[in-house]
Design brief:
By secondary structure, this protein is of the alpha+beta class. About 50% of the residues lie in helices and about 10% in strands.
Length: about 400
């Protein structure tokens, strides 16, 4: 049977949700040949597999490539894989526990609370600039700069460093490798970004060793429990994960609101009362990270289908968040939805460490736009980027 899944189709990327409904209706696990993955579309299964220790983000802590029936990455891609494989997101077992324990100290409720004034100030400055100009590209001028600036501040990247302007381009090039079947040109750009980003961070770490500050890099140096490569990989991951999803939730969220004028009017009428549930609903309704992948370390069974060790499962977050078995009227945008167990931030040991910070950034940004740009409206229909896994638009042109 043909699987209604076309991640390279512009039409599918623009609206994958009808295809997800068909996937859910026809089974719990679907083999997809072009990426050699098992697609998992149901909320209950996705949630359970995210917590199942028979699956992992990597397999090299237990198997060689040959033992697992996989081919080692090309030697030319090594800089990317060295950077990626030492990051928190792709570690398992003892190394993941050790590094997460250290990094989690930067995301305590108190730390996030202390960042709130800075986040709100940045949001006000960015939205204020957009209003003064009478509009512009909401993505480039408002949504992107905020989370990048916050993570840069947390890491201790000086505003005077010219490399600060490269953080977003480096991140975009590295994240290209998380798409399905990336091209060799994508890999080349990711390798170059990995080398340049790593070189900059090693130089910054050397500076902080001599002159520590009140930033995360200085804190990680002080505990002396991380190798330099682990520090570099952790910092890159925090930047990548710390802004890609937030940017797309902000932009996709406003694109969603502008297409649902009744819901937007209700939110504008009662922002204080509705904002927290509205942010959660926007995270659910149009999920910024559509898919998360896991390797099958030991045989599993999903819906009567045995998925053997060595396989890869594609957990469809976007589908899970629209599953009628878990959500009432899932295809309806309801900003007052109170029961909302979306899995946008994941689950299990890899649950998003920065979720509290992301919620602060999103709440602050939406609140400021509602306050300062009450007449925000679309100036042109946006075009979707070709990427499916990290899904967003090229630009969002607005008027105020």
């Amino acid at each position: 049977m043909d699987v209604p899944f076309e991640p390279w189709s512009p039409d599918f990327v623009a609206d994958p949700y009808p295809a997800y409904a068909e996937l859910r209706a026809t089974g719990r696990a679907h083999w997809y040949g072009p990426t050699r993955q098992w697609l998992i579309p149901h909320h209950e299964d996705v949630s359970a597999l995210l917590r199942d220790r028979r699956l992992g983000r990597t397999y090299t802590h237990r198997f060689t490539h040959e033992e697992f029936g996989r081919t080692a990455p090309p030697a030319a891609h090594e800089p990317f894989h060295t950077l990626n494989d030492h990051g928190l997101l792709d570690l398992e077992a003892a190394d993941h526990t050790r590094i997460r324990r250290l990094v989690s100290k930067a995301f305590t409720p108190r730390t996030v609370e202390n960042l709130a004034p800075t986040v709100r100030r940045l949001a006000a400055e960015l939205v204020g600039g957009l209003v003064e100009r009478g509009g512009g590209d909401f993505l480039a001028e408002v949504a992107e700069p905020l989370p990048v600036a916050v993570i840069a501040e947390m890491l201790g990247v000086p505003e005077t460093d010219e490399e600060r302007g490269m953080l977003r381009p480096w991140s975009a090039d590295i994240c290209g490798m998380f798409e399905l079947n990336p091209s060799e040109e994508t890999a080349r750009r990711a390798v170059r970004a990995s080398l340049d980003f790593s070189a900059y961070l090693r130089e910054l770490i050397a500076r902080r060793r001599k002159d520590p500050g009140e930033d995360l890099i200085s804190s990680l140096i002080a505990v002396e429990e991380l190798t330099e490569q682990e520090m570099v990989s952790t910092c890159v991951l925090l930047l990548n994960a710390g802004h890609e999803a937030t940017v797309n939730t902000t932009v996709n969220g406003w694109w969603t609101l502008l297409r649902h004028p009744e819901q937007l009017a209700a939110l504008r009428a009662d922002p204080d009362g509705m904002l927290s549930t509205a942010v959660e609903e926007l995270l659910r309704y149009d999920t910024p990270l559509q898919m998360f992948e896991r390797w099958v370390l030991d045989d599993i069974e999903v819906g009567g289908v045995v998925i053997p060790r060595g396989s890869e499962v594609a957990l469809l977050f976007g589908s899970a968040n629209r599953d009628p078995a878990r959500f009432s009227s899932p295809d309806v945008l309801d900003l007052s939805r109170t029961e909302n167990p979306h899995i946008t931030f994941g689950a299990g040991i890899h649950y998003c460490l920065g979720a509290p910070l992301a919620r602060l950034e999103l709440t602050s940004m939406f609140a400021e736009v509602l306050r300062a740009a009450p007449d925000l409206r679309l100036a042109a229909e946006p075009r979707w980027k070709p990427g499916y896994v990290i899904r967003g638009v090229h630009e969002l042109l607005v008027e105020v």
